[in-house]
Specification:
The protein is α/β, with parallel strands linked by helices. It is built from eight helices and seven strands; from the N terminus they run βαββαβααβαβαααβ. The chain starts with 8 loop residues before the first strand and ends in a 10-residue tail after the last strand.
Length: 265
């Protein structure tokens, strides 16, 4: 299927690793011109075999840095971004709601995961509106609709992102800017690898045993019985960035192995 992405200008935040990097790869393969926004760069050299990714250092907790990144994209490619995939984020503060997570933990998680999303959207949407065409894909999580009591700040941020997605779709679809959300669950990334290493060390078990026990104890709803792959998420994101998704707006696409039990959103 031709996704119609050749020569489109795309920005991927958090594209140095994980889902963001896999998304940058598939967009490059489809012929898009891709800028990767990240705080640092360690792992993108292998993307050069698929195209010429443009690295831009930016911290999404700073509006000034995000705006400067937008300007660098325009200068480098000669025109503004038409596609933005916002993948950057953190696990944030975790633990018991009463005993472990203080105001600072809450605010740091919100500043990165929710307000970082707001900053990226505020910065890049105006150019898309002016052009009359745009694709905005926000990375959510199963946590947006399914509570995990040890991850309340993260869950709250992803629920906020889901609501933001719907609001942005209502506000700007009429201008040609289509906003959607993709919600993965327990995908094999640096974030979940760190979680599993910690579990492995705490229990004195192998990584494989850590993953299998976590699935059994914490994610029994994942019907396929494994962690997801970043390329499985990236494939859905690429579709939502394409001309093929021209009638898809304000939706939440789960790529979660069946983890979420409810049939609503």
């Amino acid at each position: 299927m031709d996704l119609g992405l050749k020569d489109r200008i795309a920005v991927v935040t958090g594209g140095d690793s994980g889902i963001g990097k896999a998304t940058a790869e598939i967009l490059l393969k489809e012929g898009a011109k891709v800028a990767i926004l990240n705080r640092s760069f360690d792992e993108i050299d292998d993307l050069k075999s698929f195209g010429e990714p443009f690295p831009v250092k930016a911290d999404i907790t700073s509006l000034e840095q995000v705006e400067a990144a937008r300007d660098q994209v325009v200068e480098h490619f000669g025109r503004p971004a038409e596609i933005v995939v916002h993948s950057a984020g953190i696990t944030g503060a975790v633990g018991d709601f009463l005993d472990d997570i203080d105001d600072e933990g809450w605010m740091h998680t919100i500043n990165v995961n929710l307000m970082g999303t707001v900053r990226v959207c505020r910065t890049f949407i105006p150019d898309m509106r002016k052009a009359g065409w745009g694709r905005l894909v926000l990375l959510g999580s199963e946590d947006a609709v399914q509570p995990y009591i040890e991850d309340m700040p993260y869950c709250a941020c992803k629920a906020g992102t889901l609501n933001l997605t719907k609001n942005l779709s209502k506000a700007y679809a009429k201008d040609g800017v289509l906003t959607n959300m993709v919600s993965p669950a327990f995908v094999e990334t640096a974030m979940t690898n760190a979680m599993m290493r910690s579990r492995s060390e705490e229990r004195g078990i192998s990584m494989e045993e850590a993953v299998s026990s976590f699935l059994a104890e914490n994610r029994p709803g994942i019907e396929v019985g494994r962690r997801g792959k970043v390329e499985e998420v990236a494939a859905v994101i690429a579709f939502l960035c394409s001309n093929q998704a021209s009638y898809v707006v304000g939706s939440n696409w789960r790529v979660d192995g069946g983890s979420v039990s409810t049939i609503s959103t």
